[in-house]
Amino acid sequence: GNFEINVMMPVAAYNLLQSISLLAAAASNFTKQCVEGIQATTKGPEMVERGLAICTALAPVIGYDAAADISKTAYKTGQTVREVAREKTNLSEEELDRILNPASMTEPGLEGGPAGG
Asked: What is the C-alpha radius of gyration for the chain, rounded to an integer number of angstroms?
């Protein structure tokens, strides 16, 4: 009873250490092969502004159908969602800035969303 020896403990310890070593090597290789040298471009904000996904933020404020219509119009005409929303809604420029702010869409919680304050 008191002197039982776990004969598998060395094998488990070896496998744990080997897994840690493999994980460390994988993280190092990922950094060298994928992360090093990545640079942000100036196209990012423009791509977000021209993207149709930002129209999702309008749905809680103006309704799904109206937001979908704005998205379709923006796609067909090549305008931005902001430009079409300015024409088709009675939202002020300040409201559009608040609703279509990509940074606030990435914040957790309901308050960071478009309908929140």
From this structure: 26
Dist CA 24 CA 3 (whole Å)? 36
Query: What's the whole-model pTM score?
Result: 0.61
Do residues 60 and 114 lie in contact, with contact meaning Cβ atoms separated by under 8 Å?
A: yes
The token duo for 11 is 């094998």
Q: What is the pLDDT of residues 44-88, one digit of tens each?
A: 888 888 899 999 999 999 999 999 999 999 999 999 999 999 999
Annotated domain spans of the chain: 43-105
CA angle 90, 81, 70 (to 5 degrees): 65
In the numeric block, the tokens 């090597």 are attached to: 25
Question: Sign of the CA dihedral 74, 76, 79, 80?
Answer: positive
- For the segment(s) 43-105, the CATH number from 3.20.10.10, 3.40.640.10, 1.10.40.30, 3.40.50.720 is 1.10.40.30
